[in-house]
Known about the structure:
Number of helices: 10
Radius of gyration: 19 Å
Helix content: 25-40%
Structural class: alpha/beta
Strand order of the largest sheet: 3-2-1-4-5-6-11
Strand content: 15-25%
Largest sheet: 7 strands, parallel
Number of strands: 13
Low-confidence stretches: none
CATH architecture of the largest domain: 3-Layer(aba) Sandwich
Mean pLDDT: 95
Amino acid sequence: MPPKVLVTGGCGYIGSHTVRELQRQEYEIVVFDNLVKGHRQAVSDAPVIVGDLLNPDEIGAVFEQHPDIDGVIHFAAYIEVGESMQRPRKYFRNNVQGSVNLLDAMAAAGVGHLVFSSTCAVYGTPQQVPVTEDESYKPESVYGASKLMAEQVMAWYDRTKGIRTTPLRYFNASGASFDAAIGDAYKPASRLIPRLMEHILGQRHDFYINGNDYPTPDGTNIRDYIHVDDLAIAHIAALNYLWKGGDSMAFNLGTGQGTSNMEIINMVRQVTGLEFDVRIGERRPGDAVRIWADNSRARSVLGWQPRYGLREIIETDWRWHSIHPRGFDD
Length: 330
């Protein structure tokens, strides 16, 4: 029998792409999701248990019903930087306490392998780029702080309960599946590229970027955009690393190349052949100035490397939004 993997938040954007890749590689899967942000249609042919990590009994019941779970990939979290600064309790409660409840359920069930969906936001604006995993932690948002706290909790559960964890600190997840079956269906869009797609499709009156007075070549934020399918493969590589006896270790997941907001806009114009207006808004609290990854640890330890670049990200995202302008029907 193939290993059985529990995927929390598996109906969400990155989670659903990872579920699809797990299925392609013929793993057995159980998805656990509260469907607040996720969509059942995104994993239409996978078993889904609807529940919330904030209810310990609900996640505990999953391990009782599936005593053969071999590992967990944990996505379930709130992820919006701006909202986190306005509603800190929501983010600390869900992202930290939810992770504690999951770890407790894993410990009770004797499951000792966890791949954690973390973020480069734990670094804030780094002193040097590209960013290695040894960069100091100085999150600039509640979202980043909540992910760092969850990582720290996991380190203690490794020490006290033997649950080994690979926090995957990814940079800007982007793009959609190449067959346009699944993509970033969150509405209204919160990420830069999907917001721009909504504007082009007439669903958003104005499109703006948050500030153009940063100390960067064109004045806009610089980020490392990584295709969601590349991220999906990395999660499975990390789980296999743990199954083979690997120690708890964090990994940066990015392309190793920074792209500014204006460069994104210009690539969208190239791919779509469309012109559109861009407005300049105020800086967003919690936004780092520039950040991109040193992914050499993931390359050497996990044997992983990104396959896709910015053009494929924009092409797949445009195809997804063109075919599914309203996201999923559910």
